[in-house]
Design goal:
The chain is built from seven helices and two strands; from the N terminus they run ααββααααα. It has helices at residues 3-6, 9-12, 58-67, 78-104, 110-142, 157-167, 171-175, and strands at residues 35-38, 45-47. The N and C termini lie far apart (69 Å). Residues 1-37 are annotated as: Disordered. It holds the Pfam family DUF805.
């Protein structure tokens, strides 16, 4: 008999060395927070997407917005929310500028108006679900009923109500 036949199968199998390593929190980090690994750019622990990211910057908020494309579970911090809102507003500047140039050119600028409007509508459709999911998570973090995020679908008053709720502090901040 060969040694492979007598060795149990699990003894000869080699495990990959920590492919999905869970990083230990740093000294200033919450030891109870769930981490999904290390940021490849600066080596900082990356918070799990279900936890709010109170120290999120613009790139972090963009990554979380796109990674959580249709993720309604978890919470979103105020900072994460408003960075994502700023990013989406900046993305809409280009189609708005195209429309304005088209309007200023008069009749010969009509194709630019159509192009700018088309790009704006396309961006709106692409980001509709992520924005709804982001608001859902932000409402949950603020202590409001998450399904209230559907108020965004109401023209005019919906974004105002959503913005007011998104400005409120997290439940944990209010309790302290």
């Amino acid at each position: 008999m060969s040694s492979a036949a007598t060795t149990p199968r699990h003894a000869t199998r080699r495990e990959a060395p920590h492919e999905q390593t869970v990083a230990a929190p740093g000294p200033a980090e919450d030891p109870g927070a769930v981490r999904i690994g290390l940021d490849p750019h600066d080596g900082r622990p990356v918070p799990a997407l279900v936890e709010p990211a109170p120290a999120a910057d613009l790139p972090e908020a963009a990554r979380r917005l796109l990674a959580g494309y249709a993720r309604f579970a978890g919470r979103a911090s105020r900072r994460e929310y408003w960075w994502a809102v700023l990013l989406l507003a900046l993305l809409q500047l280009l189609p708005c500028a195209i429309v304005i140039v088209g309007v200023l050119r008069g009749a010969e600028g009509a194709p630019l108006v159509v192009l700018g409007t088309g790009v704006a509508v396309l961006l709106g459709l692409v980001f509709a679900l992520p924005v709804l999911a982001l608001n859902w998570r932000r409402f949950r973090d603020a202590g409001a009923p998450a399904p209230l995020a559907l108020v965004l679908l109401l023209p005019g008053v919906g974004p105002l109500v959503a913005g007011a709720i998104a400005l409120s502090p997290a439940r944990a901040e209010r309790a302290a």
